């Protein structure tokens, strides 16, 4: 099980598109954050935000791609070097998310903010966007179908609840079939418990595996 944890470690992503704002000396900083699956998708999102806020002075951005954050990019879009894109990227890294893009649009308020002011503003706007988008954990798991006789249903349902197993669907015919999803490293233990509880009567088959969103 330890090898499985090392090979398929959990990681975090943003749950959905999010938006946040921050204002500093009448300059507005509007953050748009979104989940993406590739650099190409991130670039398309950035361009879409640019078109939406075509009249803004700056549309600064950053994105991270890959389970192990293999790709990281950021752009100051005309702001002084290191004052916009990097703070946005640092906000994403600080939230420990990946497969994500963030664009912070600035409407100039007439007062120069200085290096420190810009870094703070872009950071705070990005954090607000991330918070609005929400964060979920992607965890490697397996999908199983468990078929049992009606006499074993109560016992099996109790085991599911006790083991915090997610039941995706239940089907009642001449037998009862439960489609369940469990973390990959718990698969052997759950199968053993079900087999023992039903004296081997439960029919267990794997129907899928991969990374799934873990809901709290």
- Counting helices, strands and paired strands, the structural category is alpha+beta
User: What's the oligomerization state?
Assistant: single chain
- Give a count of the beta strands, DSSP E runs of length 2 or more: 10
Q: Could you report the average pLDDT, rounded to the nearest whole number? A: 91
What does this entry show, briefly?
This protein has 216 residues and is an alpha+beta fold. The protein has helices at residues 2-7, 39-52, 85-94, 114-133, 153-162, 187-197; strands at residues 11-14, 18-24, 27-35, 58-65, 71-75, 100-107, 135-148, 166-172, 176-183, 203-214.
Topology:
Blueprint lengths: L1 H6 L3 E4 L3 E7 L2 E9 L3 H14 L5 E8 L5 E5 L9 H10 L5 E8 L6 H20 L1 E14 L4 H10 L3 E7 L3 E8 L3 H11 L5 E12 L2
Antiparallel strand pairs: 1-7, 2-3, 3-6, 4-5, 4-6, 7-9, 7-10, 8-9
Walkthrough of the structure:
The protein has 216 residues and is α+β, with helices and mostly antiparallel strands. Helix content is 33%, strand content 38%. It has helices at residues 2-7, 39-52, 85-94, 114-133, 153-162, 187-197, and strands at residues 11-14, 18-24, 27-35, 58-65, 71-75, 100-107, 135-148, 166-172, 176-183, 203-214. The strands form 2 sheets. Strands 1, 7, 8, 9 and 10 form a 5-stranded antiparallel β-sheet that branches. A 5-stranded antiparallel β-sheet has the order 2-3-6-4-5, sandwiched between helices. A hairpin with a 3-residue loop joins strand 8 (166-172) and strand 9 (176-183). Helix 3 crosses helix 4. The longest helix is centred in the middle third of the chain and has 20 residues, at 114-133. 35% of the residues are buried. The model has no long low-confidence stretch (mean pLDDT 91).
């Amino acid at each position: 099980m330890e090898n499985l944890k090392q090979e398929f470690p959990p990681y975090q992503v943003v749950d959905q598109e999010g938006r946040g704002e921050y204002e500093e000396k009448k300059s507005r900083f509007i953050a748009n954050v979104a989940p993406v699956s590739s650099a190409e998708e991130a670039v398309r999102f950035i361009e879409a935000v640019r078109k939406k806020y075509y009249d803004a002075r700056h549309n600064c951005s950053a994105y991270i791609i890959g389970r192990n954050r293999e790709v990281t990019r950021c752009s100051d879009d005309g702001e002084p070097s290191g004052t916009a894109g990097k703070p946005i990227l640092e906000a994403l890294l600080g939230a420990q998310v990946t497969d994500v893009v963030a664009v912070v649009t600035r409407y100039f308020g007439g007062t120069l903010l200085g290096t420190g002011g810009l870094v703070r503003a872009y950071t705070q706007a990005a954090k607000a966007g991330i918070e609005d988008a929400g964060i979920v954990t992607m965890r490697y798991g397996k999908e199983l179908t468990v078929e049992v006789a009606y006499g074993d249903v109560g016992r099996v349902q109790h085991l599911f609840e006790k083991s915090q197993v997610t039941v995706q669907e239940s089907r009642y015919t001449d037998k009862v079939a439960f489609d369940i999803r469990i973390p990959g490293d718990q698969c052997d233990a759950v199968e053993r418990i079900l087999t023992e509880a039903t004296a081997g009567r439960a029919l267990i088959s794997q129907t899928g595996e991969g990374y799934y969103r873990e809901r709290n």
